[in-house]
Amino acid sequence: GAVVSQHPSRVICKSGTSVKIECRSLDFQATTMFWYRQFPKQSLMLMATSNEGSKATYEQGVEKDKFLINHASLTLSTLTVTSAHPEDSSFYICSAQGQGDYEQYFGPGTRLTVT
Amino acid sequence: GNSVTQMEGPVTLSEEAFLTINCTYTATGYPSLFWYVQYPGEGLQLLLKATKADDKGSNKGFEATYRKETTSFHLEKGSVQVSDSAVYFCALTISSASKIIFGSGTRLSIRP
């Protein structure tokens, strides 16, 4: 149980375009979802926390107008990278957490390359 | 504040060697402690966890004991395999409502 999927697993887009990444909890209801960014050979950096039906809470230094997060249902959250630039190229990982659960379940990640 | 400090890598060992990856933490309150593993090109998988002092988490031959007196949660395995090559992250949370605090990760490479 506790499976989280991400789609797509890899995406290449041109500079200036927007790209959407989906995160789904397949077998449980995720009241909270988290979005992380990971640079090569580095740890995960939390970008934002989203609770179903409410606005995401962004970490300091993360541009909320650039990284749009929607958590419209208990099984789906999306991250949209708007007007992407090469410096946005990274590995994006989501995680999901059920009500009252301290454990987060991680998705397999999405590698974004902006050309 | 809350933080996790883990052994810097990379760590390179021969197959069947004994592994220790050190992890210490600073936390307000009573954290839950975790080890996550990330295989190349993949997301994170929970390897093991411990939620209170003196608990021992174990999985796939790996073990870690929650030591409150030394604020440590060192990862050990008696005999590593090539398939254990990955990046290992030590982490903590304070409560179910709090975010995970990750260590910087330790890259482990096992030689056949």
Key traits:
heterodimer; A: 115 residues; 11 strands; B: 112 residues; mainly beta; 6-stranded mixed beta sheet; 12 strands
Low-pLDDT parts of chain A are none
Radius of gyration of chain A: 13 Å
Structural class of chain A: mainly beta
User: How are helices and strands ordered from N to C of chain B?
Assistant: EEEEEEEEEEEE
Q: Classify the beta-strand content of chain B into a percent band.
A: over 45%
Shape of chain A: globular
Can you give the mean pLDDT of chain A? 92
Largest interface: A-B, 22 and 21 residues
Q: Kindly report how far apart the N and C termini of chain A lie.
A: 37 Å
| Low-confidence segments of chain B | none
What's the N-to-C terminus distance of chain B?
41 Å
Oligomeric status of the shown chains?
heterodimer
| Proportion of residues in helical segments of chain A | under 10%
Description:
The complex is a heterodimer of chains A (115) and B (112). Chain A has strands at 4-7, 10-13, 19-25, 32-38, 44-51, 57-58, 67-73, 76-81, 90-97, 105-106, 110-114. In chain A, the strands form two sheets. In chain A, strands 2, 4, 5, 6, 9, 10 and 11 form a seven-stranded mixed beta sheet that branches. In chain A, strands 1-3-8-7 form a four-stranded antiparallel beta sheet, with no helix packed on it. By secondary structure, chain A is mainly β. With 112 residues, chain B is mainly beta. Chain B is 0% helix and 50% strand. Chain B is built from no helices and twelve strands. Chain B has strands at 3-6, 11-14, 19-21, 23-26, 32-38, 44-50, 56-59, 62-65, 75-77, 86-93, 101-102, 106-111. In chain B, strands 2, 5, 6, 10, 11 and 12 form a six-stranded mixed beta sheet that branches. A four-stranded antiparallel beta sheet of chain B has the order 3-9-8-7, with no helix packed on it. The N and C termini of chain B lie far apart (41 Å). In chain B, 38% of the residues are buried. The mean pLDDT of chain B is 93. The interface between A and B is medium-sized, with 22 and 21 residues.
